[in-house]
Description:
The structure is a single chain. By secondary structure, the protein is mostly beta strands. Helices cover 0% and strands 42% of the residues. The termini are far apart.
Amino acid sequence: RGFQPLWSPKGDELLYSVYSDDNDYKPTLWLVGAQGDNIGTNRRPLGLDTWANKCSFGQGSLYCAVPVSLERGAGMFPSVGNTTQDVLYRIDPLTGNKELVQTDTTYSMTNLSVSADGNYVYFIDSSTGQLRKLKVR
């Protein structure tokens, strides 16, 4: 339930979030092949509880804002994601390996976008409405 998609820039993969009773109705990220004969192949969970719209692809990596904590049932109310305190993860779409991007502070991140050179992630801090950037490389 609660399917939220995000296509990779090449359109060959689909990141999506769904929730179910298997995960206390929290949104969980999955990645799957989505082109030609690969549609539906290599489907794998990423092990992060967040919504696909809190993620962005860029420079061979996927960046996702992940809430520090989520209550049971949060997946049914995506607007909760607009007010959570988040940490940023870098994910390798090929392997699924993830790494916490260290920051001095947490933000409530929405509208993520990766710079063309892959060095920064831009986002809106929804608690202040300000545009922010984090150095990720």
